[in-house]
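Entry 14. Structure prediction run on the chain below.
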Amino acid sequence: TGFKKPLENDDLWDLNPRDFTTTTYPDFSRAWEKELTKSGRKLVPESAEDSTSTPATDERTPLLSSGGKSKYGGGDDTAQVVVKTPKGPTPSLFSALAKVYGLSLVQAHLCKFVCDLLTFVGPTLQKLLIGYTEDTSIQQWKGYLYASLFFVSSVVNSFFFHQLFHIGMTLGMRIKAAVIAAVYQKALTMSNEARKGSTVGEIVNLMSVDAQRLQDVTGYLWMVWSAPLQIALAVYLLWDILGASVLAGLAVMILLIPVNGIMATLQRRLQIAQMSQ
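Output returned:
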C-alpha cells in the first residue's frame, strides 16, 4: 500500500486501546494531583482565587498540573491556578510517573536481568562441551544435554529480550502521551498570570523535545545497571581463565570511558553546527 500511494491514518492498524491517551492520562492525572496535594498545592479556578493566595507563576510545575475534566479525563476547561503554601515541597514528576508506571518498568528490567544471566550461559556451556569432547569417559547423554541447552537458552534469551523492548518502548510511548496531554490541557486552561511566565515556545518544547526524551530514557534506562552487571559477570568468568591478566582489559575499558565522552560531545557539536547551517 505504501508503494502504491502515500500512507494515511486509515491505512494503519488501530492503536491498542490500552495505549490510547484517554486510557493512560487519567491515571497519571490522579497521581499528579496527589503530588500537588502532598506538596501543599491545590488547583482552584481563577475566579475563586482570593487576594491572599499567590499563584505559582514563577514555576514550571503549573504547566503539568491538570485542570478539570476534559476529553483526557479532567473537569471543566476553565482557567485554573496552583495555590501553594510558602514552605511546601516541590511536586515530583518522577514520583508521579513511578507510581503509575513503576511496576511495568520493574517487569521490563526483570526481563533484562534474566537476559544478562542467560548471556553468560552460552560461554559456560561451550566450556562444558569442549571438556566433553576432550574427555571420552564422560557419558554420552551429557553431550546431548549440552547441545540441547544451547538451543533452550537461546530461545529463552530471545523471548525475554523482546519482552524487554516491547514493555519498555510501549511504556515510554504511554509516558510521552500522558505528559503531552497534561501539558496541552494545562496550556488551554492556564490563568492569565501563568501565561505571562511561559512562552508558547517553552510549552511546545515541553510537549515535543522533553516528552520525547522521557520516552527515550524509559526504553534504555536499564543500561544504568545492566552494563556494570555484565562487566562484573564477564570479569568474574574470565578470572578463572586468565587470572589477574583480565584486569588489563578492564583498565583499558575504564580509560576509554572519558575518550568516548569526548567523542560524543564533539559529535553532538558537529551535528548542531551542521543543523544551524
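The helical segments are 21-38, 93-119, 121-134, 140-189, 192-196, 200-219, 223-242, 246-276.
Filed with the rest of this week's runs.
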